[in-house]
Design brief:
single chain; about 450 residues; binds aspartic acid; globular
Length: about 450
């Protein structure tokens, strides 16, 4: 006879079953792994910084450097193809020449204006609020080797910078891809994408080809991101040793990092809860409170998945069921926006570049701030709607003003929680875009 287990036993079984389920889940969680990688990195740096890792020529230190450069190179390796194909993929998702002619202009105008507002908001805010400057920079620029700059910030003539940008933009696609010229890559991708929509028949196999290439690139990106914890570990070990984090400035640095994160989150929330709803109110006749309530579901999905692309089906449904937007509009504005329109990402990249420039003791001239502005915009347009996707493009923002690439490690440590909020705002921007485009194309007004 099988005895029914006592209450205590069944409680125990339940708890142990649950813990079996929960423990592996936590270990599989990338954010948790990154946190552990960073923590181990600091511990190893502190413990062995004066011992086994003190000699830069030692094998142990060389292994750390190898892991670090392998990870950064793997990330860098993906920038050009990822931005190029994801942008073409976004544009061909329009799929319809008539729609492109009808609502393409107003859609792009909306994307452009709101992204511009987000970056300007970020840059103006940090002009007044830059709490991290209470503490000194962590690296002297003399010790950091500036990478080659894309736009030479030495020049103080805006016309000269504009002509440099133009010559970068109008480069042949192969040379732009090979030389990691992000402005050229984005320009070519937009032109090629538009030309494909206009010149090819709908059933052309080239469309399917681009989608498949994108799926392959995203798979490779997923593999690279799996190594994030190891990459971060190596970068943080090196960072801890080089900066002497154990010598009393670690608390300052952590405070700076926290201040930066809080500022980014506050600004992103301000953009998402004040600026965008006001735009929706003025141009879409939608009361802010009601709107935020109606779109709460896709915002929660975006927040929890950190992926605009993964949120697309929910956003489509909300546009249809809650906002009464014509599906021909949402099927144009939302998929394109999931790639091209990322207000939260642009704001994050601009503020992050200014923050890192301070940490690395790099003084930003007006022209350099203009470069940050421009590159944040271009890189947010090119980033696919995936978790942490903007980190690859972020490298280009850093390169544009000569911030060493390894600075990206600082962002990677705090990147996961920040990605949640900025993705929600990215998705919100797309939905409000659909609302406004729907109204201005002269359709029947949205259900209130
Ligand atoms: N996770 C963001 C999105 O999907 C992209 C990024 O900023 O990394 O919209």
């Amino acid at each position: 006879r099988t005895e029914s287990p006592s209450t205590l036993e069944s409680v125990f079984v339940t708890i142990s079953c649950k813990s079996h389920g929960v423990v592996p889940l936590i270990f599989k969680n990338l954010t948790f792994q990154i946190f552990i990688g960073a923590l181990l990195g600091v511990a190893v740096g502190l413990l062995f910084g004066d011992g086994a890792l003190a000699n830069p020529d030692s094998d142990a230190y060389q292994i750390i450097l190898l892991l670090k450069s392998a990870f950064l190179s793997a990330l860098k390796m993906l920038i050009a193809p990822m931005i190029f194909f994801s942008l073409i993929g976004g544009i061909i998702s329009i799929g319809d020449v008539i729609k492109l002619r009808e609502i393409g202009g107003i859609t792009v105008l909306y994307y452009f204006s709101t992204t511009l507002i987000a970056i300007v908001l970020g840059l103006i805010a940090i002009f007044f609020i830059h709490p991290w400057t209470m503490y000194p920079a962590i690296v002297e620029i003399q010790t950091a080797i500036p990478e080659s700059r894309m736009i030479d910030p030495g020049s103080d003539s805006i016309v000269l910078v504009l002509s440099q940008i133009l010559s970068l933009a109008l480069t042949n696609p192969v040379s732009a891809l090979v030389n990691l010229n992000i402005i050229g890559i984005v320009t070519n991708a937009i032109l090629i994408g538009l030309a494909m929509v206009l010149a090819l028949p709908k059933q052309s196999s080239l469309f399917g080809f681009i989608d498949q290439v994108n799926a392959v690139i995203i798979q490779v990106l997923k593999w690279v991101l799996k190594f994030l914890p190891i990459g971060i570990f190596a970068i943080i070990v090196d960072f801890t040793i080089k900066l002497g984090v154990g010598e009393g400035n670690s608390a300052d640095f952590l405070t700076q990092l926290l201040q930066f994160s809080m500022l980014v989150i506050s600004l992103t929330l301000f953009h998402g809860m004040v600026v965008l709803p006001l735009i929706a109110w003025f141009f879409g006749d939608k009361s802010p409170v009601k709107l935020l309530k109606q779109i709460s579901r896709p915002l929660i999905v975006a927040f929890s998945t950190s992926s605009s692309a993964a949120t697309l089906p929910v956003s489509m449904r909300t546009c249809d069921e809650e906002l009464g937007i014509d599906s021909s509009v949402s099927s144009f504005v939302l998929p394109l926006g999931a790639t091209m329109n990322m207000d939260g990402t642009a704001l994050f990249e601009a503020v992050a570049a200014v923050f890192l420039a301070y940490l690395y003791g790099i003084e930003l001239t007006t022209i350099m701030i203009f470069s940050v502005f421009l590159m944040s915009m271009v890189s947010s347009i090119g980033a696919p709607g995936m978790p942490s996707a903007s980190m690859a493009g972020m490298q280009m923002v850093l390169l544009a003003v000569g911030i060493p690439l390894e600075a990206i490690a600082i962002l990677l440590v705090i990147e996961r929680p920040l990605d949640t909020v900025r993705t929600a705002v990215n998705v919100e921007g797309d939905i409000i875009g659909a609302l406004i485009v729907n109204k201005y194309r002269g359709n029947s007004p949205a259900r209130q």
